[in-house]
Amino acid sequence: MPSAPHDAVTLLGLESSCDETAAAVVRARLRDGVPQGPGEILSSVVFGQADLHAAFGGVVPEIAARAHAERLDIAALRALEEAGTPLASLDAVAATAGPGLIGGVLAGVMCGKGIAMGAGLPFVGVNHLAGHALTPRLTEGLAYPYLLLLVSGGHCQILAVLGPERFRRLGTSIDDAPGEAFDKTAKLLGLGYPGGPEVERAAKTGDPYRFALPRPLLDRPGCEMSFSGLKTALRRARDRLVEAQGGITPQDRADLCAGFQAATAEVLSIKTARAMDAFAVDYAADLAAAGTEAPTLAVAGGVAANTPLRAALTAACAARGWRLSAPPLALCTDNAAMIAWAGAERLLRHGPDPMDLPARPRWPLDREAAPLIGSGRKGARA
Predict the structure, then answer these.
(1) What are the φ and ψ backbone dihedral angles of 225, each rounded to 5 degrees?
(2) Which residue, 38, 85, 151, 298, has most beta carbons within 10 Å?
(3) Which family is annotated (predicted)?
(4) Which of 166, 201, 163, 167 is nearest to 182 (CA)?
(5) Annotated binding residues for Fe cation, as ranges?
């Protein structure tokens, strides 16, 4: 723990859960010993790996892990240099300890522990999803409680964020995450990687109504989602075109992309709207106690950059008198600034973690939520 009195804490954060190797230095102001946003991002370094995985149409865990091991110390050094912050002036080191690809998570945890031990600093293991969930606290000092839609290549969850370590899951995907479905769609249609931007670019000249693609689970109550069947329906539509005409034209590709994108945005926005309605009722007293004039829906994850999805979420918020909080794209996708901030929130409330803290491939935020399809024998992935 940083020694008192302190009016701020400064942390080095490390992120390596998937295919971004990142380091950042963040300063959090304190009030009564508790971090108060917005925080100050002194530096943020991100080394992407898209070029390493492009030929495979998706992330290869072994390649990702090796790249993290090679780049983490470089990223940390650059972040410290850009922030003008020597190790001696840090209060702690935070690193993603899960969930994620275990090779990358392990690389980040070991690098973070090594830096902390060498500098005599506390170490904090951070839940990657908590980093995303607390980003609105970092960027605008958003008060609890608020609702979060996390949509990325590896995760799809709707969460009530009640505190730095209090989360209630209102909905999730029972199979593919939206970003994963975008990547697979791009691969099916011969587009590049990562798939999200490629599909959105192609969809701009497409007709979203040409192909009757499904909206999975909209006929069922609740906020659970599914995207695997949508991807399969697109593949079958493509195969029918290939069988009928020997291939697909650029316009076919654009129409398929537009249809897939429209279906994804509709499912996400309708399911999120259901969660908004439930949240407003279940947490009315908490919102009133916090003096919140209008509830807030925050979005995070790479898919949150999708233009039709943002438009649909904006409309859902406007119809209900909600605020929409969308951090800059650099803080929606994986980064280490969010890990440093979440580390500060955890450090000041619970102190440092032990040096035998393990790396975890699975680490659900809501431990009381029932595991869903794809969770495996060890429990929910996230």
Answers:
(1) -130, 165
(2) 151
(3) Belongs to the KAE1 / TsaD family.
(4) 201
(5) 128, 132, 334
Element (H or E) spanning 46, and its range? strand 34-48
What element of type H or E holds 22? strand 20-31
What pTM does this model have?
0.90
d(CA 362, CA 382): 6
In contact, 357 and 125? CB cutoff 8 Å: yes
CATH architecture of 8-141+330-350: 2-Layer Sandwich (3.30)
Looking at domain 146-328, its CATH superfamily turns out to be ATPase, nucleotide binding domain (3.30.420.40)
pLDDT of residue 47: 95
What are the residues whose beta carbons fall under 8 Å from the beta carbon of 12, sequence distance 6 or more?
23, 24, 25, 76, 79, 80, 85, 87, 90, 92, 93, 94, 115, 340
Q: How far is CA 300 from CA 37, 155, 157, 297, in A?
A: 17, 10, 10, 10
Task: Decide if 218 contacts 263 (C-beta within 8 A).
Answer: no
**In one letter, which amino acid is 69?**
A
Residues constituting the chain: 382
Q: Can you list the alpha helix ranges (DSSP code H) found in 209-301? A: 228-245, 250-282, 284-289
Sheet with strand 34-48: strands edge to edge: 34-48, 20-31, 8-15, 92-98, 123-127
pLDDT string in tens for the chain (382-residue length): 444 347 999 999 999 999 999 999 999 999 988 899 899 999 999 999 888 988 887 889 999 999 999 999 999 999 999 999 999 999 999 999 999 999 999 999 999 999 999 999 999 999 999 999 999 999 999 999 999 999 987 889 999 999 999 999 999 999 999 999 999 999 999 999 889 999 999 999 999 999 999 999 999 999 999 999 999 999 999 999 999 999 999 999 999 999 999 999 999 999 999 999 999 999 999 999 988 889 999 999 889 889 999 999 999 999 999 999 998 888 988 999 999 999 999 999 889 999 999 999 998 888 777 665 544 333 344 5
- Asked if 206 contacts 254 with a C-beta cutoff of 8 angstroms, the reply is yes
- Residue 166 tokens, joined: 């209090």
Residue stretches of the annotated binding site: 128, 132, 150-154, 183, 196, 200, 306, 334
Which positions make up the binding site for substrate? 150-154, 183, 196, 200, 306
